[in-house]
């Protein structure tokens, strides 16, 4: 994936750090599903969609929701009219987002390469740069974090050990209650066997 950004610069959200060396880009992007988010903080449709995308991203990467972050990275490709608008928008978004610097002509290259004509648009890419979904906006709206499983499968990532928060919660509840259920089942069986033995001996069961 780093090959897509060879010779380019990405900035870390709310930081002055630039991710530009081949090694840094490789660490940040390789073996991950990449989302290119084409949007604008001033676009009405983007203002409706961006909070959904923020929640989507956090539910897949934030330790509050998942045991471990999924193999997902997002790069914001803005259509904001000023650098201040882009910065103001990014301040409301997750810290893990990366962004193409404001004014970088590479943004136009990406729009042309992935045939983006309207915003919001979310292009989903494999680690090798192949397109999984040309525009996943409606899929994200409809399915939420569950659609990442399909992308992960299509991307053939090396590490498939991913667990959605809801699944993790279910697993935790099962792991806590199952031993109690099994214990109760054993006690019920013992009581049943004891009562059966008393009946055979002519005793009345209580």
TrEMBL record:
One GO CC annotation: mitochondrion
Entry's Gene Ontology BP terms: photoreceptor cell maintenance
UniProt xrefs under SUPFAM superfamilies: Thioredoxin-like
Domain Thioredoxin: 1-142
Superkingdom of source: Eukaryota
InterPro entries documented for this protein: RdCVF (IPR029520), Thioredoxin-like_fold (IPR012336), Thioredoxin-like_sf (IPR036249), Thioredoxin_domain (IPR013766)
Provenance organism: Calonectris borealis (Cory's shearwater)
Protein name: NXNL1 protein
Gene3D superfamilies the record matches: Glutaredoxin (3.40.30.10)
